[in-house]
């Protein structure tokens, strides 16, 4: 018998809170649903301990580190029977083979959202980092306030291996960002760049695909498009994990199981435009979403997407060092 409450720490714009009312109707358990804007915020909660959260969502690149540091507990898969609906490709992920500690909770990419009425010729990261190109759109473009995503986008532009952390490569990354910075409106999270795109104070933004699709379909801004540049872009997988010190692990397992039910998962996709790793959801989606390449990429687009490498403490330190130098310049 479930009791008490269950607290979840999730990305901004990553689900419709209405689903938690349904969970309460089914179980009697209240859901406390708090939001963050970067992986670093979520990982910091696990590092500090005592967060009071029963479920924390982490992107793929942080999961292995959380497991190795024993910040999260092994799942009791007997309490998550809906794992049977998970796409087989998501059951043997490098960072957690067999889903022993994490359950995929959405996937997408990070590339560029843009207003096609304002920018008509954008196709590449090369343009997005080129001062001559950016001069036309000075202070009308933005990068994410998400250090790893910014570093990886820059590496893709430079043609570097995503797992190359040499001093020479990180210096090149820093210099490319410093050249780009004078032309940016800023480094923005969802709460800033999404309203900017919609109000046309921003013409193009380094962005998560779900946010861009929210603007296009949810808010009706049909002039906003999503671009995966010629050089490629970062793919990501969100994952639900249970902290080692979760106050209510039984309710956490129940909520995870509920959220990967195909009907509930399809409702998430329809509400916030994030694809779920549950094949049975596709037939439940409206046709315009089921055929939207920015949501469910076709094979040729998939070939241009790259999962980021697992981030160790050393790699995070290198990212933060470059980030601090760029932000303070």
In the CATH scheme, the class of the largest domain would be Alpha Beta
With helices defined by DSSP (H or I, 4 residues minimum), what is the helix count? 14
How large is the share of residues in beta strands? Answer: 15-25%
Could you tell me the radius of gyration in angstroms? 20 Å
CATH-level-4 superfamily name of the largest domain? Periplasmic binding protein-like II
Would you mind describing this structure in some detail?
With 329 residues, the protein is an alpha/beta fold. It has two domains: 5-106 and 236-297, D-Maltodextrin-Binding Protein, domain 2, CATH 3.40.190; 108-234 and 302-328, D-Maltodextrin-Binding Protein, domain 2. The protein is 39% helix and 20% strand. The chain has helices at residues 18-27, 39-48, 60-68, 125-128, 131-134, 147-158, 167-180, 190-199, 209-218, 249-259, 262-272, 287-290, 299-302, 313-328; strands spanning 5-11, 30-36, 55-59, 92-93, 96-97, 103-115, 141-144, 184-188, 204-208, 224-227, 233-241, 305-307. The strands form two sheets. Strands 1, 2, 3, 6, 7, 8, 9, 10, 11 and 12 form a ten-stranded mixed β-sheet that branches. Strand 4 (92-93) and strand 5 (96-97) form a beta hairpin. Helix 6 crosses helix 7 (167-180) and helix 7 (167-180) packs parallel to helix 14 (313-328). The model has no long low-confidence stretch (mean pLDDT 96).
């Amino acid at each position: 018998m479930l009791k008490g409450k269950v607290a979840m720490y999730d990305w901004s714009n990553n689900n419709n809170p209405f689903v938690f009312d349904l969970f309460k109707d089914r179980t009697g358990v209240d859901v406390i649903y708090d939001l963050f804007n970067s992986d670093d915020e979520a990982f910091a909660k696990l590092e500090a301990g005592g967060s009071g959260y029963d479920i924390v969502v982490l992107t793929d690149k942080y999961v292995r580190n959380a497991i190795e540091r024993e910040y999260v507990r092994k799942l009791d898969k007997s309490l998550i029977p809906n794992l049977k609906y998970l796409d087989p490709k998501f059951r043997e992920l490098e960072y957690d083979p067999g889903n022993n500690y994490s359950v995929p909770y959405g996937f997408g990419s990070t590339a560029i959202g843009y207003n096609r009425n304002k920018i008509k010729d954008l196709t590449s990261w090369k343009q997005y980092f080129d001062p001559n190109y950016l001069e036309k759109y000075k202070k009308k473009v933005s990068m994410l306030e998400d250090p790893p995503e910014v570093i990886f986008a820059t590496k893709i532009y430079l043609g570097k291996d995503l797992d190359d952390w040499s001093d020479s490569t990180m210096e090149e990354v820093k210099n490319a960002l410093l050249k780009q910075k004078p032309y940016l409106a800023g480094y923005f999270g969802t709460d800033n760049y999404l309203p900017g795109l919609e109000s046309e104070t921003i013409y193009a933004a380094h962005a998560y695909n779900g946010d861009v699709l929210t603007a296009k379909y949810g808010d009706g801004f049909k002039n906003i498009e999503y671009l995966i540049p010629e050089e490629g872009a970062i793919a990501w997988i969100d994952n639900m994990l249970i902290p080692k010190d979760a106050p209510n692990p039984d309710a956490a397992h129940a909520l995870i199981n509920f959220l990967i039910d195909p009907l509930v998962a399809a409702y998430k996709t329809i509400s916030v435009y994030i694809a779920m790793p549950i094949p049975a959801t596709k037939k439940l989606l409206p046709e315009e979403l089921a055929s939207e390449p920015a949501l469910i990429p076709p094979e040729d687009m998939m070939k241009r997407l790259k999962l980021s490498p697992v981030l160790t403490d050393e790699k995070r330190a290198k990212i933060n060092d470059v980030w601090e130098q760029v932000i303070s310049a």
